[in-house]
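Input:
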Amino acid sequence: MNESTQAFREHPEFASLKIVEAITMTISQEENFMRKIENEEKIEPKDWMPEGYRKNLIRQMSQHAHSEVIGMQPEGNWITRAPSLRRKAVLLSKVQDEAGHGLYLYSATETLGISRAELIEALQTGEAKYASIFNYPTLTWGDVGAIGWLVDGAAICNQVSLQRTSYGPYSRGMIRICKEESFHQRQGYEALLALAKGSPEQKQMAQDSLDRFYWPALMMFGPHDSESAHSAKSMEWKIKRETNDDLRQKFIDQTVPQIEVLGLEHPDKEIKWNEERGHYDSGEIDWEEFYNVINGNGHCNRQRVEHHIDAHEEGTWVRDAITAYNVKKNAKKAQNAA
Amino acid sequence: MNTEKLELFEVFIRSKRGLDHKHVGSLHAEDHEQALEYARDCYTRRSEGVSIWVAKSNDICSSQEDDAESFYDPSDDKPYRHATYYVLPDPVNNM
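Output:
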């Protein structure tokens, strides 16, 4: 260590300039990577990263992006049949947001060196997954409210936690998405509240939607920690910051008083406050249903992917028109320049 | 899929007059004009901006963080560039 480095190390400013650490020590790429993770520094696209980290991120982030995009379908189903112009405008806005969120996440995933085309293809061939909740049908208007409240509510629990994920572009995307997402949950709850305070038939519709969407919403947090294939490594790399079961517990706890305000019956008959734990105890999820839906046998799995493919193919003429217009425009520009 | 042919653009938004343009994300578009319209639709749905810049990602030249050592080295041994380097008597240390 030369004299000026020594003087610098003793200087009070030193502590805040971590970069000097990296300069004065020779460390391997892997150690350097883990040091950043341990120091809560973000990993950025051009940094060296273990192949497993990259793969794990691409899997999780693309699954997240696909969920946003496929998630437009069950709600989109009700845009033309929304009960009022106000509800229709709100629903349109929400579905448009989901498209935007898909874009943020695809863009962030692309920084890992995979193309948008590869990502979309993996979705369309079924190689990549999306949240199993979107394979349930939206049978009534109440379902639109239940999705906003419960499905977006569960997604928010997960996304708030992911704002602290170790990959910079993913973290920034999550921060942006969380800012917008709160409206989704509130509008859903408001719609369901209107039903719950309405006629007996409307209240029944709200109860029925709650009953059908409550358990699938709990499944959104994934398998128990003991069964989760990717959890341990993801936690170590700080891709995930809280475990599936911890996040699920948070959601269960926050939902109980919300059901009470609606004046509806809780779908879980075993729900009970546990003073000692400071949390609600709850009944077991039907995991057979979870794996069935994940493995392609939900109500709407095939329909969702087919619709995605159809929409893409039917949009070919728009993309062709854009290309043709640009060819024309560029030719004109060249002519004017000459 | 057709996005393969589309170019990648980086989007920067000035949220308020007087503030810097800040990088907010990226998108695929055919040209600058379309990128600007997409950026408006995607990144300013809630009046997040008063001005948008788009630039082709390929046109951006960036330093490598892994080269930080040699790239930033010249200023690392100049602690006197920092205010806290100068130890002043307490009564005037607010300077």
